[in-house]
Design a protein that fits this description.
This protein has 621 residues and is α+β, with helices and mostly antiparallel strands. It is built from 10 helices and 37 strands.
Length: 621
């Protein structure tokens, strides 16, 4: 039986059913909390307690829409025999307060989602947080204080973006990260502090960062010293800075301890009571959580089987919890022991929904190109009853962002393909994170060139190596990855078919019709608009759509505010006019990324059948 037609025990319905995504752990007293996104409940996000189970009932869903990408949406406060939960509710974006098993009570007024909140911290009797105000023509943000009676006052305004609010141990200073348009948080940021006097912020000062040095994730080591992530060396590494602005490197290595700040609430550092701290480092395919002594500079890796850790870990100074994954486990909530440097316990298991004999071999390869090497993560097909004896169908996967990366850990939807005999090539094209600032900056002024060139380099190499079947080369990606899918299709004839998930088709449209957080993103990747409209036209897949000769299937959410439906509709119309084999699906109520079971099932099954028709083989659903 040829690869691509292998029978698989994993069906699209299984992917949707098992596809509960988990995130945002925290330690609340002696309890552990996290968030689950449940496709069978239409993507409802539920805060879960290890001790109490679900903390919010339907229809409540904990999800902030700040920056449109959201992030950590809740804060837990432990009491002797109870707890208080503050969370942002998805449907109205109000903050709710919930005392123990009582029903949630709205804390902030109904603004018809004009006001959104994130980065909640407890300061005395108030909640301090970032408030985003969205109107038709303007978006602003500020740091506000909110009492339990709902009174709101402004603490800090004037910056366009705020993240990582942190109070000093003595309560005398607030530290945070800010940046301004046209910069993104991986271009340049500032670490700022202000004095807290009678509940007000005064004497704001910059301690670190610049327009070319994106500093991240400040945490107080003591009342006069902050740990944070600095990129002065070309790699995101941990540094120290005093409140007087004296900086020093704690770690100097060619490894990334930082992350692209797509969501509010990400962290790169957690400080323990004994003065040591934990962080993440290592190559993309072998990430480690490490314990660091800032006095001796000694680094000790935790000994675990996991190779990927999410930068949302948490500590109460004694305990450490994190979501981690590898080739046999999806994001798994674990506790690490800082004394033994080992795994303490698995809090929420998340194993494969099938036998380990189906687990793919996952490895990173470095592919030589004409002007640069390309980092690619291969997921090789595996089936206990069938063997690969030659080239297989190849599915090129492209991450979104584009300032992001794909990890070398098992993905549920990838298993759908590898168990059927497909090889997946997950391309961390130039501009991806995880490889230092030089690699990330390869995309500066070159989006729409470097990314698809690296895709072509990857496909040609895998065909030459006898890994990919030349007659069955497929490509798939969403958002920025969809943009690269479309460009790869209009600039080459290598592909048998493509799948575009809410991809960018026309850059001028994106520059003038997207949300505030990314509204100036293209300045660095293309050029200022409209001054360089010529480049926007040149790089847009839609400009070259007449070259399209490859079957294309398109998926779009009707409520997408990041890449509006007009982008996908434009390419659908081109396919119809040219008479190209294509399919188009618009999912009602879905946004930028699909969370409903029905959407997941349809997109997986339809893509598989579409690829089978284009590649002249008969896949099994």
């Amino acid at each position: 039986m040829q690869p691509g037609e292998w029978p698989s025990p994993l069906h699209a319905g299984d992917v949707a059913k098992a596809g509960v995504s988990v995130a945002w752990p925290s330690i609340v007293g002696e309890d552990i909390w996290w968030v689950e996104t449940r496709p069978e409940e239409a993507g409802r996000r539920v805060i879960v307690s290890q001790k109490y189970g679900d903390l919010i009932d339907s229809p409540f869903s904990s999800s902030t829409q700040v920056h449109e990408y959201g992030g950590r949406s809740y804060l837990g406060i432990a009491h002797e025999n109870d707890y208080t939960l503050y969370f942002v509710n998805k449907s109205d974006q109000r903050i709710y307060r919930k005392l123990g098993r009582n029903q949630p009570i709205a804390l902030t007024p109904d603004s018809e989602k004009r006001f959104r909140y994130a980065e909640l911290i407890k300061v005395g009797e108030e909640i301090w947080c970032v408030r985003e105000s969205v109107s038709e023509h303007q978006t602003t943000r500020e740091i506000v204080a909110i009492t339990d009676s709902g009174h709101i006052r402004t603490l800090m305004a004037g910056h366009q973006f705020y993240s990582n609010l942190r109070i000093s141990p003595d309560g005398k200073h607030l530290a945070w990260i800010s940046w301004e348009h046209p910069l993104m948080p991986w271009d340049g940021t500032q670490l700022l502090i202000a004095k807290i006097e009678q509940g007000e912020l005064r004497d704001k000062r910059k301690l670190a960062g610049s327009d070319t040095n994106p500093v991240l994730s400040p945490e107080w080591l003591d009342e006069r010293t902050l740990l944070y992530i600095d990129e002065e060396s070309g790699w995101w590494n941990p540094w120290l800075v005093t409140i007087d602005g004296v900086r020093s490197a704690v770690v100097r290595e060619e490894s990334e301890w930082g992350f692209p700040g797509w969501q509010l609430g990400y962290v790169g550092i957690a400080v323990l009571h004994d003065g040591r701290f934990v962080g993440l480092h290592g190559p993309v395919d072998q990430r480690k959580m490490a314990l660091v002594d800032p006095k001796t500079r000694r680094i000790q890796d935790f000994d675990t089987e996991f190779t990927h850790f999410v930068p949302s870990f948490a500590s109460n100074g004694r305990r450490i919890v994190a979501f981690a994954a590898n080739s046999k486990n999806f994001a798994t909530l674990i506790e690490l022991n800082p004394d033994t440097h080992a795994l303490e316990s698995i809090i929420r298991p998340n194993p494969l929904p099938l036998e380990h004999s189906f687990a793919p071999d996952i490895r990173e390869v470095r592919i030589p190109g004409k002007s640069r090497d390309v980092h690619v993560i291969l997921h090789l097909p595996r089936h206990p009853e069938l063997k690969v004896s030659g080239p297989t169908p190849l599915l090129v996967q492209l991450h979104g962002g584009p300032t992001a990366n794909s990890s070398a850990s098992v993905q549920l939807d990838y298993l759908f393909w590898t168990t059927r005999g497909f090889t997946i090539a997950d391309v961390n094209y130039g501009g991806s994170t995880g490889y230092g600032s030089a690699y990330r900056h390869l995309l500066d002024g070159q989006w729409g060139v470097v990314d698809y060139e690296d895709v072509i380099t990857t496909v040609e190499y895998l065909m030459q190596q006898g890994i990919a079947d030349r007659k069955r080369i497929f490509i798939e990606g969403g958002s920025a990855g969809g943009f690269t899918v479309l460009n790869s299709l209009v600039h080459s004839n290598l592909f048998t078919a493509g799948a575009d998930y809410y991809g960018v088709a026309e850059l001028s449209m994106l520059a003038t019709d997207t949300h505030d957080f990314e509204s100036r993103y293209l300045d660095s990747m293309i050029g200022p608009y409209p001054e360089r409209k010529d480049l926007y036209d040149q790089r847009s897949p839609l400009t070259h759509a007449e070259n399209l000769a490859t079957p294309l299937i398109i998926f779009q959410g009707t409520e997408d505010k990041v890449v509006p439906p007009s982008q996908s509709e434009a390419f659908r119309d081109i396919c119809e006019r040219k008479g190209l084999k294509h399919k188009y699906f618009a999912f009602e109520g879905e946004g930028h990324g699909f969370v409903k079971s029905e959407s997941m099932i349809i997109s997986l099954e339809e893509t598989l059948l579409f690829f089978g028709e284009a590649g002249n083989f008969s896949p099994q659903l």
